[in-house]
Amino acid sequence: MKKVFVTGATGFIGSHTVVELLEQNFQVVGADNFSNSKPSVIERVKKITNKEFTFVELDLLNRVQLKEVFDHHDFDAIIHFAGLKSVGDSVQRPQDYYYENLGMINNLLSLKKKNTNVIFSSSATVYDSRKNPPYSEEDPLLPINPYGMTKMLGEMIFSDVSKLNDFKTIALRYFNPIGAHSSGLIGEHPSSFPNNLMPYILDVASGSRPVLNIFGNDYPTRDGTGSRDYIHVEDLAKGHVAALTQLDLMDKPFEVFNLGTGQDTTVQELTQAFCKVNEVNVATEFVERRGGDAAVSFAAVEKSQNILNWKAQLSIEEMCKDAWKWQQYLISNES
After folding, report:
1. Residue 67 contacts by C-beta under 8 Å, 6 or more apart in sequence?
2. CB 223 within 8 A of CB 269
3. What would the pLDDT profile of 168-197 be if each residue is shown by its tens digit?
4. 55 found inside a domain
5. C-alpha span between 249 and 121 (Å, rounded)
6. Is 163 buried (19+), middle (13-18) or exposed (0-12) by CB count in 10 A?
7. What torsion, rounded to 10 degrees, do the Cα atoms 180, 177, 87, 155 define?
C-alpha cells in the first residue's frame, strides 16, 4: 500500500482528494494548519470513507515540525495543496503570497527524502491570458497576478530540482473547481469573505449575504461576464489519483497536465444554472472589474485524457446541486 503525504489536507480540494485516495486504498498522512479550513473536516472525511488516516496539525513554514513528519514517515509521494490561493487577495498582499507559497515549496524540497515523488497543485492562472483559449500545456506562460506567479515559479522550482535529484514531479494546472462531495459532508468553506464564485453564490442563496457582486459585465464573452472552465471537485480529486499512477510510468523528471472540462461557462450562466436546478433566487449586481482577472479561460484537455486516462465526467448542474447540498449541511450543523 502506497503512503501519500497530503499538505492542505482539510482544504477544499485537499479533503476531496484524501477521500479519493482512501477509497482507492492509499495510506494517507494529511497535514494542515487550518488557516482556511476546520478540524471537523477530518472526522467527516472518515465518515464518508469509513476509513482512518493519520493527521498532523502543521504549518509547512515551520521546518522543525515538517522535519519531524519526514523523520517518522517514509512516503512514496507528496501531494502539495497547501498555500494561499486567492487571485484578488494576492493583488492586495503580493509579499505574503510569495513568502508563503514559495517558502512552503522550499521547505518541502529541503526536508523530504530525495526520491519521494511530488504532485504539485498548480493553476490555469499561469497562462498568458492574451492568447485565446483553450490553453494547452505547451502554451507560453504569463501570469497577470501574484498568485499565478507563485504557481509558475513553483513549477519552475520543481522542474529544476527534479532534474538534479532522483524524483519526479507532476504539476496539475487546475481550472476552476466548484461543487462539493455528493454526500454533502465536505465542500468549500472559506474562513473569511469568499474569494471564489461558488461560495459567494451559496452565501447569497442562503441569505447570509444580500447580493452577489459580479465583477465586470463588459468582457468580450457571450453575456459580458467573465467565463471560466468549471470542474467538479470530485473529478479533480480523481485526476490526482490518475497522476499518482502516471508518476510510476514517467520517463522524464517533470510533466504538466491541465485538469479541466474543456468548456467555459460565464458567471451569469453559472448563477442562472444554480438558481434553476436548486429552485432558489440569487440577487446580483454588476460592479467594476477586479484586478488580475482574465476575460475567458478554459482548458485543452487532450493531454490529460490521452496520457492520464482521465476525463471530467460531472456537469455544471451536478456541480450546482452538490454545492447547495453542502450549504444545507452547513446551515443545519454549523449555524
Report:
1. 111
2. yes
3. 999 999 999 999 999 999 999 877 777 789
4. yes
5. 20
6. exposed
7. 130
Identify whether 134 is preceded by a cis peptide bond (ω within 30 of 0). yes
147 included as an active-site residue: yes
CA-CA-CA-CA dihedral for 192, 193, 196, 197, to nearest 10: 140
The 10s digit of each residue's pLDDT in 87-104 is 888 999 999 999 999 999
- Phi first, then psi: give them for residue 72, nearest 5 degrees: -100, -10
Is residue 325 within 8 A of residue 184, CB to CB? The reply is: yes
Q: What is the DSSP letter of 289?
A: P
Of the residues 97, 127, 135, 147, which is catalytic?
Answer: 147
DSSP 28: E
Which domain covers residue 113, as residue numbers? 3-179+231-261+300-313
Residue type, 44: R
**Which CATH number fits the domain that encloses residue 245?**
3.40.50.720
C-alpha cell, 115 = 526520491
